[in-house]
Write a structure and sequence with these properties.
single chain, Hypothetical Protein Ychn, Chain: A, about 160 residues, alpha/beta, about 15% strand, 4 helices
């Protein structure tokens, strides 16, 4: 069956959506408010890790004290040895987006934690392989970081992928 509907592509720069309409209030953190972002996902297997890091950056810029807890495959997000053909070199645009976003987060005050159990037992990933500034932690702290967030009334975002 031949194509029966023909439309022209919009010209570059034409607006297709109302990008100015905002339905919810622009909430900023009150002094001392915290956010905990728990990430258990494989880097680069989908967009969830990068989206969570971008959301975390937005939370920092809204004034929240942000802690990112990387566990399970999430610890691989904090690889300080990523790059090709050499460490720190991007093989293609966006290749180091996760590393760049973690560096931005730390520079802007977020704390990034990586589980030692996942690093060693699952991936043979050394503490020395982490991006500078990422804090390794005990596997017992996965639960206790979540309980700390709950006890402190912090905003929590949890992402699991396998």
């Amino acid at each position: 069956m031949p194509k029966t509907v023909n439309t022209e592509l919009p010209a570059e720069g034409e607006t297709l959506y109302n990008a100015e309409e905002k339905l919810f209030p622009d909430i900023k953190a009150e002094p001392g408010q915290k956010a905990f972002i728990f990430i258990h996902t494989v880097p680069y297997e989908g967009s969830v890790a990068l989206v969570n890091l971008l959301t975390s950056t937005r939370l920092v810029r809204k004034g929240f004290d942000v802690s990112i807890v990387l566990y399970g495959p999430g610890v691989l997000l904090a690889s300080g040895t990523r790059g090709y053909p050499a460490v720190g070199q991007a093989a293609f645009p966006g290749h180091l987006a996760i590393n760049d976003q973690l560096k931005t987060l730390m520079k802007e005050g977020a704390k990034i934690y990586a589980c030692r159990f996942a690093m060693g037992a699952l991936y043979g990933f050394r503490e020395d392989d982490l991006l500078p500034g990422v804090i390794p932690f005990s596997p017992l702290d996965v639960l206790d970081s979540a309980l700390t967030a709950w006890k402190e009334g912090a905003f929590q975002m949890n992402t699991w992928t396998v």
